[in-house]
Specification:
It contains 9 helices and no strands. It has about 190 residues and is an all-alpha fold.
């Protein structure tokens, strides 16, 4: 039961952290979405402190790196930077998925331990209903808690991966709009 409780606490922490970290205002502050390429400077030399903070975001990172590396292979460079951003945004999502897969197994393990207690009570002691009900209760409770932890973990895992995909599309479109003046006209 303790491992399931630890999984529950870990799942809750990851979900709260990812909700914050994957919010649009953290990934792509509104201040950056309205910039022109000429407004981009160095994050350390930015006159406006709010702009400097905004440049520390994922979109700011993309914009600064792409501006520094204006090359003929802009598409490949953009894809590499987006891949790096995806890696950062997917942090802890694998752990969330693993918890979602392990929690029911821990519940089943608790079920087996509870059933062993029941059969132990039947074999070595008198068939006391309180001993039998205690073992069956342990079995059912651990199974239920394993599922209670697993279901939200797997749902959050899938929803966060979908959120990362949506954010990557937004980051790609926004960085292209800012860095390539031809996109503004269309």
């Amino acid at each position: 039961m303790w491992p399931i409780l630890a999984c529950s606490v870990l799942t809750s922490g990851i979900i709260v952290e990812r909700c914050w970290s994957l919010s649009l205002r953290v990934i792509a502050p509104p201040r950056l979405a309205s910039l022109n390429v000429s407004d981009l400077g160095d994050q350390n030399k930015a006159v406006d402190p709010q702009l400097a903070r905004s440049l520390n975001s994922v979109l700011g990172f993309l914009l600064l790196r792409q501006k520094e590396l204006e090359t003929e292979n802009g598409k490949e460079t953009n894809d590499l930077f987006l891949l790096s951003a995806a890696n950062e945004m997917e942090k802890n999502l694998t752990l969330l998925g693993v918890i979602g897969l392990i929690a029911p197994l821990l519940g089943i393990l608790g079920t087996i331990v509870g059933m062993i207690d029941v059969f132990d009570a039947l074999t070595f002691r008198a068939a006391d209903p309180s001993v039998l009900s205690s073992g069956i209760s342990t079995a059912l409770i651990t199974t239920a808690f394993g599922l209670i932890v697993a279901i939200p973990a797997l749902m959050a895992h899938r929803l966060f991966y979908r959120r990362v995909d949506s954010l990557l599309i937004y980051l790609d479109a926004t960085s292209r709009k800012i860095l390539d003046p031809r996109h503004k006209a269309s």
